[in-house]
Design brief:
Length: 352
Amino acid sequence: MKGDVPSKKKIPFKINEPFRTYLQRYNRDTQLPIQYDDLLRSSISVSLLDAEGNDTLWETVYYEESDRIELDTALTKIYALLKTDGDFEVLEHLSVARIDYCTFGNTKPFRVRIINRLNDNYDHFYVKKADSSRLYGLELEDLLSPNRITYLVDKNTLIEEHVAGIPGDSFIENNLDDTPFNRIRIAKEFIKFNERCFVRLLGDMRAYNFVVDITPDIEGSQFRIRAIDFDQQSYEGRKSFYLPQYFKENNPIIFLGVGHMSKPTVTQYQLEERSMIAARVKRSRQRINHLLRIMVKDTISDSRKVNQLKKELSYHHKAKSFLECKTMGEIVLNNIQLLLAKDFKQSILYDE
C-alpha cells in the first residue's frame, strides 16, 4: 500500500461568528477559568519517558508555586465542567497530578492528568489551541460516528476529553496475533472506520492518530477504532489522504483483511456502515444542517487544495456536482448527499 503525507504544516483557521453562535447554542462554548497561553508560563520541563525508557516526545512541565496553585484550581474546575457539567462538589477530591506538553503537532497540546484522591484513579484531558477545522472535525465525529465526544471551547482555547483505547501503532505491534475470529473482527472494524473517514473527509488517519477500544464479548472481543486527531478535517487536496487504507502504517491491518475477506464481504460491511451513517444524519438532521450551512461558507483550506479534491472526488464518484464546489464544506456536503442518495462509491480495499 502506498503512503501519504500532508503537503506541509497545516495552518490554523479562526472560528467565525456563525460557528461561534452554533457552538454556544449546543453548549460547546463556555467561559473557562484559564486560557491555553496561561499554561505556557512553565519554569522548567523534563522529557517524559515511557515504561521502557523511550522518549515519548512529551515533556512534563513545572511551574512556580504561585502559578501552580492558580493553575491547579483552574484545571480541576475545567475537569468538572467537562465531566460533571460544572458540579464543583467533586473538586475537593480532585487534584492535578501532572501536566505534559507535546512538542510536535499543530496544536501543541497540554495533557493534564487529574487524580481522584479517594481512590487514586486518574483521568486526562487536553488543552489546545482552538482551530475551526478541528472543531468541525470534532462536531462531525460526534454527529456521524458511533462515538460521542466531549469538548469545550472559549475564545482561542480548546478543551478535549481523553479518548480511551490502545494507540493504533501499539495495537498493530502487539495485538494482531489473535484468534482468527478476532482477526476478522479487527479487519471488519477497519473497513467501517475507513468508510466513516472517507464520508466525512477526515484525513491523516495513520496508526498513531487513532486508538482501538477492545470490549470482551461472549465469544472473542469487539473492536472499535476511534479517531483521536481531528487537525486534518477537510484540509488536504488528495482523495487518498482521507482513506486510512492508503497509509503504510496501517498495512498490517490491511493484510489481515486480505487474508480473511473476499470483495463481496468487504462491500457488505461498507454498505452496513454507510447505512448507519445515513441513519445518524436523519436522526440529527436539524443540527447537521445547521452545521453544514455554516461550514459551506467557511474557509478551512486553501483554494488549490479545494480544487484538487473536488476534481478527484468528481472523478471517483462520477459526479459533476463536485466541480461546482468552492469550499471544503461544500465538498463534505456533496459527499453526504451522495451517501443519502445511495450513490456513494468507495475505493476497493482488498482484491479477491
